[in-house]
Structure formats: C-alpha cells, structure tokens
Amino acid sequence: SGRRGSSGRSRPQRRAAGAGSGDGAAGRTGWKRHGTAMPSWSDLDTGPNRRRRGTDGASFLQRVSTVRFALIILAIATLFTLYVGHVHATQSLLADVQKARSVNQDLHLKHNRLKGEYDRKTGPSVIYERARALGLRESVTYGPKITVE
What we know:
Layout: H1 26-29, H2 41-44, H3 60-63, H4 66-122, H5 124-133
C-alpha cells in the first residue's frame, strides 16, 4: 500500500460515513484513501518535508527557530547596552565624587589656614602687646572691692 507510518504495522481501519474510493489527488501524491475516515499527518507528509526527529548531530543554530534566535540576539544586545550604560554612569559618578573630595579637601585646608590666622591675631600674647601699647598695666586686681552689707 502507499501508506507511510512510524512503524511497519498497519493501523486499524475506520469506516467514515460517505467515504468513497477517493481518487481525486491520489494519483498526484501517491496516497490512496482505501475508504478510511481521514488520513493522519504522517500519511500526508512527504519525505523531504518531514521534520527531523531528535537532535542527531544538529547544532544549536539548527535547533533554534529564527524568531527565538532573533529574540536571543535582541536580549543579548539589550543587556550589553545596559551594561555599557551602567559602566558609563558609574565612571561619571566616580569622577563627580573625586571632584567633590578635591573641593572638600581644598575647603578644609582654607578653613584651617583662616582659623590659624584668626588665632594668631586674637591670641593672648597679641592682646597683651596691644594693651601695653595703649598704656594699660598688668595687675592682679580688677577694680575696687565691693562690700555687701
């Protein structure tokens, strides 16, 4: 017979209502109906169009569909773009932090310098010298005694 199946055994035959001899496309495809209900997909499928069973030596690219492969490439490109953006943002942030540290250090140095100048101008030795220049004398007493009755 012209039937092809996955095994050498024939399948049980079913009789469909109104199923005739079916000679329409039988001459062109080599398939005969034999009065059964409907053919299975394996009966209609020809050899060159048949899908391969299993992964007999097929590479990854041969097993993956085109749409799935395109989605994988798109996902990889998206992840790579996100990674490059993250690296760029991190480097920019690091440069900003280093600049802020430099400005902070400069401000601390300026504060320390100005504080030193202020302390030199308002220290006790400077005040005593200015007081002597004005004619004031150093003494232990601060004024007349106050008595409380």
